[in-house]
């Protein structure tokens, strides 16, 4: 262990200062590759800390919202530049995030460095929102301006906390809101260090940061009378609680929840090793713990054997182990609860007679069997639709592969889910791709690709059905934090 790996304790950030949670309460963060190893301690905020954070944001709102869109956009650009200027600090936080999260070093570096890009994107949209819409009469002239809502509570999960915050934090700020950010209980250290850095760059009270148990501080935050926007990313289970709590004050919510994203490989899809490798990363980047990951694969029967062979070969190249090692391509699952979900799905498939193949290699057998949350990517071939691995979100290294005869059958299977986050269509025919995509009940469809590496951040992102409400990213993601305000007058009075 290098001295970079010293056990650290992170704090919360309220009203312009970093401090311990009330009473100094902390909780342990473990290394999912070696669960007995404590990586650090995160501050365990309580209801009092939540109230102080919300009140700090509320007090900071008048001055921040009175700045022009341009002034706020420039502040975001300034912060974006500072996020990666200290290379040693970026390396430290990236290594820390691999040790507490499990994901490989290449991914944690991305997580620590791309947040600035989303600050810049939001700043650009800020310049656009600043321009009031003009609707000329007669009989009336009307302008539509966009005003901030107030205090926004931003709640994120453990899988890609900073990238997910990049889809809501700069957008909330550029529209003039002040924020309270709540990071997940899991792998909270590097996100907390990063967010405390960001919070300190804004005027007092504009950005406040909490870590702690969502079961204890979630409702006090989303049900707080001074909170005027809630933007939540996480499970549908908690999404329901957030809606209930926010209803108390009629607080608008944006929910980005689970997904069970289907890929449709049509009979005319272009398939080769490069495509199968992309499919591998679409399904198993971050050990499969991504909302927009490829989670169900439907293949036309004529191409099924070819896909099984090619995709399996790509999966067999996985190297499972400690995410800090350069040769590792897949780290452990993030936590014991998620690990059990995935292992139970694989065991159920086997118990019900499905053919299951665990792929890849684990060079350090002792580590792999040493109690860490390691699971080789498991493929369930010709999976029965009744299996949990097909019906539920695995959010981990397991994937069902099914075959279909007709397009109608594939579309019906893909839509047979209470989720509707993402999907993908793989075909050589662009017109057919769009036609099939428009038949899918999903907020985002990738063509000949799937997942974060195929994501266009300019497109609004969010789900149909129980995958959520509202959209993040794109221009819609900014408008979600603004209140349209129509101002009308007699024709000629307002707009000359
Ligand atoms: O989510 P949780 P987790 C889904 C995916 C995964 C599941 C678990 O299905 O299996 O979520 O991930 C806070 N009021 N997705 O554990 O439990 C909690 O502290 C307010 C899909 O991260 O929902 C954490 O900060 N907040 C998703 C956050 O909610 C509460 C990506 C999420 O916790 C709360 C990630 C409460 N009552 C997970 N209780 C996607 N679509 O991107 C807890 N929290």
How does this structure look, described?
Helix 1 (47-66) crosses helix 9 (214-222). It is built from 18 helices and 23 strands. The strands form 6 sheets. Strands 15-16-17-14-13-19-20 form a 7-stranded mixed sheet, sandwiched between helices. Strands 10-9-8-11-12-22 form a 6-stranded mixed sheet. A 3-stranded mixed sheet has the order 1-5-4, covered by helices on one side. Helix content is 38%, strand content 22%. The mean pLDDT is 97. The protein folds into 2 domains: 8-257 and 471-484, Aldehyde Dehydrogenase, Chain A, domain 1; 262-456, Aldehyde Dehydrogenase, Chain A, domain 2. With 496 residues, it is of the alpha/beta class. Bound molecules: ligand TXE. Ligand TXE binds at residues 155-159, 182, 184-185, 214-215, 218-219, 222, 233-235, 238, 241-242, 256-259, 291, 338, 393, 395.
């Amino acid at each position: 262990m290098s001295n970079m790996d010293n056990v650290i304790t992170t704090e919360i950030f309220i009203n312009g200062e970093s401090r311990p949670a009330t009473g100094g309460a902390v909780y342990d963060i473990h290394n999912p590759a070696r669960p007995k190893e404590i990586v650090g301690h995160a501050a365990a905020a309580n209801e009092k800390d939540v109230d102080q954070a919300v009140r700090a944001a509320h007090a900071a709102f008048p001055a921040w919202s009175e700045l022009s869109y341009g002034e706020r956009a420039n502040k975001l650009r300034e912060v974006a530049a500072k996020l990666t200027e200290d290379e040693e600090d970026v390396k430290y936080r990236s290594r820390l995030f691999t040790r507490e999260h499990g994901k490989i070093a290449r991914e944690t570096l991305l997580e620590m460095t791309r947040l600035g890009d989303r600050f810049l994107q939001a700043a650009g949209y800020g310049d656009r929102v600043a321009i009031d819409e003009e609707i000329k009469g007669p009989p009336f002239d009307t302008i539509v301006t966009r005003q901030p809502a107030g205090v926004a509570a931003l709640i994120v999960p453990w899988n890609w906390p900073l990238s997910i915050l990049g889809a809501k934090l700069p957008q909330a700020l550029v529209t003039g809101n002040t924020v309270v950010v709540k990071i997940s209980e899991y792998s909270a250290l590097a996100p907390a260090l990063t967010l405390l850095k960001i919070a300190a760059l804004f005027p007092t009270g504009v950005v406040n940061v909490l870590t702690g148990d969502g079961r204890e501080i979630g409702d006090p935050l989303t049900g707080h009378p001074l909170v005027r926007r809630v933007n939540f990313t996480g499970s549908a289970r908690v999404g329901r609680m957030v809606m209930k709590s926010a209803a108390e004050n009629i607080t608008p919510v944006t929910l980005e929840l689970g997904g069970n994203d289907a890929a449709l490989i049509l009979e005319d899809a272009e398939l080769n090793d490069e495509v199968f490798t992309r499919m591998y990363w679409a399904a198993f980047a971050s050990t499969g713990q991504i909302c927009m990951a490829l989670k169900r694969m439907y293949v036309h029967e004529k191409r099924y054997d070819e896909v099984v062979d090619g995709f399996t070969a790509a999966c067999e190249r996985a190297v499972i182990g400690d995410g800090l090692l350069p040769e590792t391509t897949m780290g452990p699952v993030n936590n014991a609860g998620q690990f059990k979900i995935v292992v139970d799905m694989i065991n159920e498939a086997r118990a019900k007679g499905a053919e299951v193949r665990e792929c890849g290699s684990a060079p350090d057998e002792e580590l792999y069997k040493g109690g860490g949350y390691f699971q080789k990517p498991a493929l369930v071939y010709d999976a029965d639709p009744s299996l949990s691995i097909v019906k539920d979100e695995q959010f981990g290294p397991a994937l069902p592969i099914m075959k279909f005869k007709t397009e109608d059958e594939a579309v019906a299977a893909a839509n047979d889910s209470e989720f509707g986050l993402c999907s993908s269509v793989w075909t050589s025919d662009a017109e057919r791709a769009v036609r099939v995509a428009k038949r899918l009940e999903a907020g985002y469809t990738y063509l000949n690709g799937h997942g974060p590496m195929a994501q266009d951040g300019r497109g609004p992102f969010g789900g149909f059905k129980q995958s959520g409400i509202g959209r993040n990213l794109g221009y819609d993601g900014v408008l979600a934090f603004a209140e349209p305000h129509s101002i009308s007058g007699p024709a000629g009075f307002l707009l000359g």
